[in-house]
Design goal:
This protein is of the alpha+beta class. It has two domains: 157 residues, 2-Layer Sandwich (Alpha-Beta Plaits), CATH 3.30.70.2330; 100 residues, Alpha-Beta Plaits (2-Layer Sandwich). It has five helices and 14 strands. The strands form two sheets. Strands 1, 2, 3, 4, 5, 6 and 7 form a seven-stranded mixed β-sheet that branches. Strands 8, 9, 10, 11, 12, 13 and 14 form a seven-stranded mixed β-sheet that branches. A hairpin with a 4-residue loop joins strand 13 and strand 14. The longest helix has 13 residues. The termini are far apart.
Length: 274
Amino acid sequence: MGIFDRIFGRTKTSTPPTAPPPPSHRADPAEVKFKITRLASDGRRGVAGEYYHRKDIAAFVGRRRLASAGDWDAGLRTPAYLLREPKNRYDHNAVQVMLPHAGATVLAGYLSADEAPRWQPLLQRIESAGRIAECSAAIYRNNRGDGYDVVLRLSDPEDAEFANAEPDDATFLSADRQCAVTGEKDHQDVLLPYLHRLGHVWATLHPTTVSSGKYSGSSTIEVRIDDKPVGSLTAVQGERYAEVLGYGEVVASEARVYEGANYLEVQLMLPKVD
């Protein structure tokens, strides 16, 4: 029995569809056959063993052009799925890194043997809930010319979960750049519940206008956590990122709540738009 059968009672044909292109990676809900839990992307880590799975990775890449390793901003973006493999004959802590391909998945490699044990509690908890852990990944042609490098955009396991639930029916933005939020001072009552669970949260983005000051009346973006306003972007940043509001009816981004010098503050992670 394969790992998908073990977790879900389904065959590999029930795994996620081929990933749509960045800057978001929302799948059509009608095509998704199980629920995923997205993990925070505040970190970079390589995958072990891509050389032994280069044919499967090549099938995933197809005819798409790849940047070389080192050109880190130009990798082929895709979701990746982390799956424990407790019956692995060599390492019962093994964690597979799977890529979506043609309605099923291909094996790209594994988390390193040093890192895999740290991921067991989190992944076991996710899988016990009947879900699959997803992170963002990028694929490059390696500099040896004999295969691929797969790089996961993934936080440490102790910091990979979100403090709130994923927004329903959202388009999830890639987390490429930090962007400050303004006006949090007026929303400390909303942020206060996050005081003892500081870290990654899901935020949603909404059109609004600047309420006062030099840019009063200018269009910008309101930031909400659990559908409650917590601040907004400046007029300049609002103009820069205005296009992301068109990516879906509900647009979500990774964010952090942290203790600033005088009050709780919010930092967004947004895609590159320039």
